[in-house]
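Many introductory courses stop at the sequence. We go one step further.
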Amino acid sequence: MKDDKIVLYMHAGSDNHGCEAIANSLIKMLPKPAVLVSSRKAEDEKYSLPALCSEIIQEKQVEKNVLIHTWYYMWRKLFHDPECYMRYRYSAVCGKNTRKLNISIGGDNYCYENMLERLIMSNRMFHRSGAKTILYGCSIEPKILKSTEIVEDMKRYDMIVARESITYEALKAAGVDQNVYLCPDPAFLLETQCLALPGNWIEGKMVGINVSPMIVENETKSGITMENYKALINHILDTTDLSVALIPHVVWTGGDDRKPMKELYDAFADTGRIVQVEDTSAPELKGYISRCCMFIGARTHATIAAYSTCVPTLVVGYSVKARGIATDLFGTAENYVLPVQSLQKREELLTAFEWLKEHEKEQRSHLQKIMPEYKERAAQGGELLSQLL
């Protein structure tokens, strides 16, 4: 067994800048160098991670090779060996290449049904190799923990670090009460890098907006999300002297924030008061977000970038992570998170923005007061990892 480095796995690639932000921040907290196993290495090489990792390893993709897929499918059936896929996928860091500590950094991976088998098998595989595993910075819907198989998997981890209290309390209630800790998302510690601003950016007068295909997919009334965003921007431009900055945070094919944002930009481009920020690294996107006067965001780590730089924020959320983080910061998610599933009228986001505008100074003051201690608690995750090693 190799023990000179720590393995980070379940990383989905840096075109999701939330994934980049988690990996970037966590690597800096680790007591030893890190090997990052990525499902999209080419994406990671474009942004901030190559300078931080000792190595970035591309997962082997079983699905992309018909012969290999057929071989492992037959092996699985003949020898009742479901983990053979995982051993192939992670061959660079399992078997003779196993490291002592393997950290699953996928955030809310357990909220997606198509990820569960892979998560369970990889956790079990690393343990059978004699390694330790950690589930770090996770959010888990409480209803998922009604599954006996999931609870058994949780108990297999040597440590679980939940990033918000809803997940932490749900784990405890499900009987997962050994080596479970509560620490804020490591991305609260992400550095802020400020690039030159676009020409029509007005300092102190920009409302940052992030919208994603993910929240559109979770709406319960077709088309209502984009209707709300258009009504919001129209309201901002008509009733205030503020301008709008559209800031993407995920640029994956099939889940690219820039697509719905282009629709918004095109609808209001003639006003001269809307800016489309181009794709760049997570620290640089945080730089843009930090210079907004308010932020309305759909992507979790876009809103974390705002919270951590004390920008008053409204989250258009769809899952436990949004509710949990807001509750930990403000004591409640009410008025701070607008569930996309609840949208039925085109004025609801506009109304939520008006509440944010009315309480802008109050929220900024609150964030400035609590954020130093909150970040200190996020940094304590590094101490937990050192203790386990």
